[in-house]
Amino acid sequence: MQNKSMLMIPGPTPVPESVLLAMAQHPVGHRGQDFNQIVSEVSQNLKWLHQTKEDVLILTASGTGAMEAAIINFLSFGDSILIGNNGKFGERWVNTAHAFGLKVDEITAEWGKPLNPEIFKTKLVNDKDKKIKAVIVTHSETSTGVFNDLETINKYTKAHGKALIIVDAVTSLGTTDLPIDEWGLDVVASGSQKGYMIPPGLGFVSVSQKAWKVYQNSNLPKFYLDLGAYKKAINKNSFPFTPPVNLIYGLQIALKMMKAEGLTQMFTRHEKLARATRAGIRALGLDLLAADESASHAITTVSSSKIDITSICRIMEEKFDIVLAAGQDHMKGKIFRIGHLGFVCERDILTTITCLETTLQLLGDTNIVPGKAVSEALKFLL
Ligand SMILES: *Cc1c(COP(=O)(O)O)cnc(C)c1O
């Protein structure tokens, strides 16, 4: 049905009507006082959301732009770095670092498994000459729905003393507790179309004092994504270049909604939705790629040995207008992913589980006990 599409993918995520309406306004001049005032409010609220007293820089870019900024502003030609790679986004960090001539040591894990922090520890402890300039970790690996143990990897990085910790928090920011200042995370990158409840188009980067010192000596080429320019501008509630004014209108409203809900409540909501989804999926006789201990609160990844995954996604979309995300690369056709982050509530999970149940029945699954999956999911919601 037209205009009835329900996005259950890990970005872009659904956008509240109040945000859409705010974005429908006529843009104002980005150098005027009215806009400065909005930027001032947005900037304060972003610090609250990111749990940092440092500026959160806003880039006109998708999350990958924020990732690239995190590399080119804090590293130099030939620097050695450690990158955790257990999925599509870990791999993207590796590719970005290679594009800028960095020496990359990859710590890998099978897709669906979390990174082993002890491997980071060994490499960092053995680095007596302090050659490792940064450790890069994807907190919530969106391609597999796996959480990496950032807290432990960060502790080992802190013990090293020299290396910066750079974090991909694209699907963890706003969904999962990520106390940036308390943990001392140096550079944290995220993007608007995931947990922020606004459309794609903005990248966010927070930067620690330690990272700003390193920035002074970084010699990788940069211009549009030179974060020094964004820092200077944000101190005057402004931008170095023309920002997407209407997206900032949307962000202003979305941040107000988040503040009204509260950080702890937001994190609890996402965790509950994730648990309910997993319970429902299990009751449907489908398999979960990630183990309970390392399951992301933002994405649930589903596989099946008996039902064709591509057919499930096709029927969900054709019959129910529910969009699920397919697997990427070698996971194509083997998994589907349910995004439950941002503007997502209990009703959305119950609807998705119910429609999945019917879809499986339509595909000839005779083991389905009607209503069982929803009642299993409800145990985590009521
Ligand atoms: C979405 C995402 C990104 C950024 O992707 P863009 O398409 O550039 O927004 C980076 N890392 C993770 C973990 C993501 O989920």
Number of domains: 2
In one word, what is the shape? globular
What's the CATH architecture of the largest domain?
Answer: 3-Layer(aba) Sandwich
What's the SSE pattern? EHHEHEHEHEEEHEHEEHHHHEEHEEEHH
Helix-strand category:
alpha/beta
Q: How big is the Rg?
A: 21 Å
Distance between the termini: 31 Å
Number of strands: 15
Estimate the mean pLDDT confidence: 98
Strand percentage, roughly?
Answer: 15-25%
CATH class of the largest domain: Alpha Beta
CATH superfamily of the largest domain: Type I PLP-dependent aspartate aminotransferase-like (Major domain)
The side-by-side strand order for the widest beta sheet comes to: 2-10-9-8-5-3-4
Q: Provide the helix percentage.
A: 40-55%
Largest sheet: 7 strands, mixed
Organism: cyanobacterium endosymbiont of Braarudosphaera bigelowii
Protein name: Soluble hydrogenase 42 kDa subunit
Keywords: Pyridoxal phosphate
Family: Belongs to the class-V pyridoxal-phosphate-dependent aminotransferase family.
